[in-house]
Write a structure and sequence with these properties.
Bound molecules: copper (II) ion
Number of strands: 9
Helix content: 10-25%
Distance between the termini: 58 Å
CATH architecture: Sandwich
Shape: globular
Number of helices: 3
Structural class: alpha+beta
Number of domains: 1
CATH superfamily: Cupredoxins -  blue copper proteins
Order of helices and strands: HEEEEEHEEEHE
């Protein structure tokens, strides 16, 4: 029969997410954690997070804005490189993600060392505007 449903509004988001960031299979279990970070009005929510060293963290990065954003997590040296760099794309490093306007990207990261790291959007002007978060990795 000619039954035809209009595409659900979430379907293209799911497709974009799959295309951008294939996520590891099996996302629940001991030593694992899921965290969602929203990008809204060019701010990260939440802007502070604490995880345990060695924990496998599944991040869902949800961009609610009509402009693109980045989520790049690491130490000061890494951020200094991104601040001055001009990489057009971030390859497939799980700690460096581009999230298109209204898109959702998933990534899985393990932070082996305790420390205080930052997650920052390095698109022009976004860091200064306040697109900065703090990730504390506590001893396992
Ligand atoms: Cu941004």
């Amino acid at each position: 029969m000619g039954r035809h449903r209009p595409p659900a509004p979430w379907s293209w988001l799911a497709i974009a997410s799959l295309a951008l960031a294939p996520v590891a299979a099996g996302c629940t279990g001991a030593g694992e954690r899921s965290i969602e970070i929203a990008m809204r009005y060019s701010r990260f929510e939440p802007s502070t997070l604490t995880v345990r060293a060695g924990q496998t963290v599944h991040f869902t990065l949800r961009n609610d804005d009509f402009i693109d954003h980045e989520w790049i997590v690491g130490d000061d040296a890494l951020h200094a490189r991104h601040e001055t760099g001009d990489e057009p794309a971030h390859g497939d490093r799980p700690t460096e993600q581009s999230i298109p306007a209204l898109g959702v990207v998933t990534t899985t990261v393990r932070f082996p060392e305790p420390g205080t790291y930052a997650y920052i959007c390095h698109l022009p002007g976004h860091r200064v505007y306040g697109m900065v978060g703090t990730l504390v990795v506590t001893g396992g």
